[in-house]
Amino acid sequence: MAKQEIQLRISGMSCAHCKAAVEKALQGLPGVARTEVFLEEGRAVVEIDPAQVKVEDLKQKVEEAGYTVA
Ligand SMILES: [Cu+2]
Fold first, then answer.
1. How far does the centroid of ligand 1 lie from the alpha carbon of residue 21, in Å?
2. What is the pLDDT, as a whole number, of residue 1?
């Protein structure tokens, strides 16, 4: 299974709760192997299985949680 590392720019995160909410949202998607969110940088690194999940799905999930993906 080939893994792919995705970088997302996320705006709207202002505290540790936001960071946790984004991590939880992404981690809940099938095909997401690992999620790391950098609050201060407004950035997330997500390791996915591209056969199961698309970048668009990640963006949609983050936006559903109330944040904006650049
Ligand atoms: Cu917050």
1. 8
2. 64
